[in-house]
Amino acid sequence: ADLDTAKQELEEFIPHVRNISDSSIRKMAGRDLVRFKEFKKQGIAVKFGRFSQKENNQIRKNVEEFLSITGIDSAEKLLFTSRYPEDKETISRLKAEHLFCEKLSEGIPRPWRLIYYRARKMFDPNNYKGRYTKEEKEKLKKYHAMHGNDWKKISEMMSRSNLSVAMKYSEIKSAINYGPWSKEETQKLMHAVEEVIRKRMEMEDANSLSSLEKSNRDLSIDREKLYQRLPWTEIEAKVGTRYWRQCKQKWTTILTKKMTEGQQLYRGTKRLEAKINLIKRLYEMKVEDANEVNWEELSNTIGDVPRAYVQAKFYKLKVSCVPSWQKKTFSEIVDYLFEKKLPELEQQL
Hints:
It is a single chain. This protein is mainly α. About 65% of the residues lie in helices and about 0% in strands. Helix 10 crosses helix 11 (about 160-170). This is TTF1 factor.
């Protein structure tokens, strides 16, 4: 298809398509356009963002069916063919003959490339291997000095996933401080967050305010914008001595303290009550996936706090109370907490 026509047709489903490279657009025109049009007929919109449990299950089903059809003996061979040079020719032929692209994306209204990346993350045996040891961190630095950002090569040498080694290197590449936050670091964080929020707000109302009004006005914004979708890697660079996840956690702590006026909402009896209420509310929701939970609405189980604070408390609850939680679905985790942990907490209370 003509490139301009492909861009025009894809733009209906992917508004930012004109920012994508021409080679990627050609691939999307072949792999995605027909699927997107079929989904449109069914009234289903193309999705982005985090994958739901339902979509993850569909990927597993698609992969298992493809393995069954072709006789390829593992998902790793199918999705990481380069790791098996002796079988590469046979696997590549089977993938072409049995339309691997179409089969993998069946029933999932997303661009094929995103489905493929998600499948690789789910089925990579080198993923989820726990914390890096001191020796592994030193190896990672050494391999990066030798091979630069060739994460594929480094991941094979480390027996870790591409994403894992890339993210870990971004964490250790500079002198990151893991101790208590200093006053100076906290000020840097607050200035960095203010700067990105102010910049965002000014872009939103660029046409409605003069430059003098913009430079002099105080920010008056919805509270949610203080903690939703902030560019944490940009904030990390401005702070300079902390990893982005540390910045996010510290900012949540600062906001929580300000929103609660310094009250201890998660101590003693209140802590038990908050855990009990949180488990009960999640159980009542009967949702299948964490993405379907309205964490903002749940925040009043603890008090007037940011949703990230509630999510963090739920994470600690499942990690400390649910055995083999990594292998359970979200609904199974909630059911376990309701049936096994809730009676214990109520007894303690």
